Structures are given as C-alpha cells and as structure tokens.
Amino acid sequence: MSDKINPDHYKNNSIETTDAIFSQLTEAEKIGALKYVIGKYIFRAGKKVQTLEGTRDDIGKAHWFVERLLKEITDMINKRKKAKRKNPTEIELEDLTEEDLQELLNPGAKKKKPNWNIEGMLKEMSEEDVIELVGSDYWNEYRRKKNPGKVVDFKKKEDHNGNTDTK
Fold it and tell me: Which of 34, 57, 59, 113 lies 20 to 30 angstroms, CA to CA, from 134?
C-alpha cells in the first residue's frame, strides 16, 4: 500500500520536496507555511474525498505537517541554545527573534504598536496615501494627538436658494 500522507513522488529526488522548499525560507516563512498547510488540511477534511478514509487522509496530512512544525520549532530552540552555549554574552543574529517567534505562534498576544512618523510621511505623500498606509485607527489617533479636544467636522448645507449654513 502506498503512503497517502507523504507519497513517494515527494521523496524520489536527492532531497525531499519540503526540505528543498524550506531551504529557501526564513524561519518565519517556514512557520507561516506550515500553519497554512495544517489549516488547509484540517478545514478540507472530508470535503475533497467525502468518505471516512478521505477525512482520515486529510487529518493524517495535517498531522504530518504538525510533526514537521514541531521539528522546525525544536530545531530553532536548539539553534538558540547552541548559540548561547557558544558565546553567552554575544547575541547571534537570527532571521527570527524570540519576540517574532512568539507573535507567529500566538498572533496578537503581544501587539506592538508601530512607531509611524506621520509628520514625515505627510511631507512625502498625500494624506490619502498616508491613511491607506497606516490605517484609519492610527490616523485618527494621530489627529487626536495633534488636535486634542473634540474634533468636529462642520459641513456646509445649502438650501434650495443656494445659501449655505453650517450645522
């Protein structure tokens, strides 16, 4: 019986397909890719092949990628431990900091607020472009800090004679 979870066509090269792909990815990209694939197989379980066997195969594939995620994270931990043992006072440059890793594993748990230089951005870009880049929440916060107090937009109202009135 052939392996439905990790078939031979992924292993018939000098390097397994996932290993070849992962050799080109950063730690963060590996974690993101694995979380995506795990979710894909969990959510499609029983939908592509609508039998118990099909459901089992999809869950098995998700399990294979969970095992791979555990291996990748374990390798990251060991890499950091080895670097600390090598030189405990020097911080080795890594493509993924511990904080980045925690954000990937627990998205939104510790949200860092970006430090936008909106004043500088406005010198280089239109207001609309700045709002699109930083988002309306940060833009509104910037406006509140710049102009504290109640912000009221008065709109001119025209009556049927063309007279304007602010309300």
Answer: 34
Check residue 54 and report its DSSP letter.
H
Number of CB atoms found within 10 A of residue 157's CB: 10
C-alpha 60/C-alpha 5 separation (Å) is 6
User: In DSSP terms, which residues pair with 122 in a beta bridge?
Assistant: none
Nearest CA among 56, 57, 97, 102 for reference residue 80:
97
Helix/strand number for the chain, H first, E second: 7, 2
Cα distances from 111 to residues 31, 100, 101, 106, in angstroms, run: 18, 11, 13, 10
Query: Coil, strand, or helix at residue 128?
Result: helix
pLDDT tens track for 69-124:
998 888 888 887 777 777 655 554 455 566 666 666 666 665 556 677 888 888 88
Asked whether 157 and 166 are in contact (CB, 8 A), the reply is yes
Torsion sign over Cα 121, 123, 125, 129: positive
pLDDT band with cut points at 50, 70 and 90 for residue 63: very high
Structure tokens belonging to residue 22: 């992962």
Stated pTM of the model? 0.48
- Locate the domains of the chain by residue range: 8-105, 118-166
